[in-house]
Amino acid sequence: TDIGSQKDRVVTEEEWLQKWEMGNIGFHKEQVHPLLQKYLDVLLSGKSGLRIFFPLCGKAVEMKWLADMGHSVVGVEVSEQALKEFFSEHSLPYCEEPVPEISGAKKLQSTSGNISLYCCSIYDLSSSIVGKFDGVWDRGALVAVNPCDRQRYVSLMITLMEKSSSYLLVTVSYDPNKHEGPPFYVPESEIKSLF
């Protein structure tokens, strides 16, 4: 349960933007995550037309994959570059509009309307802005938020979830004394207490 020196580590918004600018995005995967494929039925519970949230979405290919199945996808990402790359790499036309409730934020929405990506800090979102979700695909978000912000992050996620929603979470297991993160090590005991 010891997370070593990681508990005090802070990665700034500027550092994340720099990772995108430099193309230092080893966390981005070109294929749909095998665990999402394996547990898709858990996320969807046999339902169609769900609203699915992608926290810290980057340019995750799973967003288009789920949208193509008829679901509505909403993501949030601080890097506008990542969001624009998502639309261009999938040849998806989109429009941009400001988000009146959040200073400086933008919403990039596919012309088809089923993918809405917010460019802002996740902590600026609320259910009054984005609504509530039937499912959450968290592959790389909880492990990317600064350890000191985990409780704040999870509290926000809980307010964005419908009563009957599913939350798929992927974490990584390693010795936190040998790697400073991100991705950060989140012990299972902490996940249980957070949620």
Automatic annotation (TrEMBL):
GO terms for cellular component: cytoplasm. It comes from the Eukaryota. The keyword Nucleotide-binding does not apply. InterPro entries: SAM-dependent_MTases_sf, Thiopurine_S-MeTrfase, TPMT. Its EC number is 2.1.1.67. One of its GO terms (molecular function) is thiopurine S-methyltransferase activity. Keywords: Cytoplasm, Methyltransferase, S-adenosyl-L-methionine, Transferase. One of its GO terms (biological process) is methylation. Pfam families: TPMT. S-adenosyl-L-methionine binds at residues 16-27, 56, 77, 121-122, 139. It is found in: Cytoplasm. Its main location: cytoplasm. It catalyses: S-adenosyl-L-methionine + a thiopurine = S-adenosyl-L-homocysteine + a thiopurine S-methylether. Belongs to the class I-like SAM-binding methyltransferase superfamily. TPMT family. PANTHER family: THIOPURINE S-METHYLTRANSFERASE (PTHR10259). This is thiopurine S-methyltransferase. It comes from Caloenas nicobarica. The lineage of its organism: Eukaryota, Metazoa, Chordata, Craniata, Vertebrata.
